[in-house]
Design a protein that fits this description.
about 30% helix, globular, Rossmann fold, alpha/beta
């Protein structure tokens, strides 16, 4: 597991040693960020369900202005902090569930240009998470949600609209925008 581009290109991240974390493969991560290439620089990014922090760290490496990491598992939070420390990078890492984090960001009037949404595939939280992002209005008007999921999962993306999607082996990455 490594950073694929930007100021930390080629740097290895601490390997995942926990069964509950399913890191995004480097080839998929690179494809995601190549698609986000024109909006990631100077953006504010939320890595929700951060796991190892690899997606958010990739955003930092490629020039994001700010990345906030959220995960409810203490082991994931520790791993994100270790990876940031190893790179000499600082960022806010929050331990908590997605709904409390979204409510907190709303209370701070925080808006995100990119939300990286990669919960455990069988968690059943996709629809509720998208509804919370919409109802608490934490995505900027031109923002994008990158939703990584098992390709067999089908659920309602509303109130967002699908901009595009791509399948990589057993996973599907869906890019969502506000329905303006």
């Amino acid at each position: 597991m490594r950073v694929t581009a930007g100021k930390f290109k080629g740097r290895n991240l601490i390997e995942n040693k926990y069964a509950h974390i399913r890191p995004t493969a480097d080839v998929v991560k690179q494809a995601i960020f190549n698609k986000l290439n024109f909006i990631i620089e100077n953006s504010v990014v939320l890595d929700l369900f951060a796991g190892t922090g690899a997606l958010g760290i990739e955003a930092l490496s490629r020039g994001a202005k700010e990345v906030l990491f959220v995960d409810k598992d203490f082991r994931s939070v520790a791993l994100v902090k270790q990876n940031l420390f190893a790179l000499g990078e600082t960022a806010e890492v929050i331990r908590g569930d997605y709904l409390n984090a979204i409510k907190f960001f709303k209370s701070q009037n925080k808006k995100f240009d990119v939300i990286l949404l990669d919960p455990p595939y069988r968690s059943g939280v996709y629809e509720d998470c998208l509804k919370a992002i919409s109802s608490y209005d934490i995505l900027s008007n031109e923002g994008i949600i990158v939703c990584e999921q098992d390709k067999k999962l089908n659920f309602d993306f509303s109130p967002f609209v699908v901009e595009s999607e791509k399948i990589y082996g057993i996973k599907k990455v869906v890019y969502l925008k506000k329905n303006i």
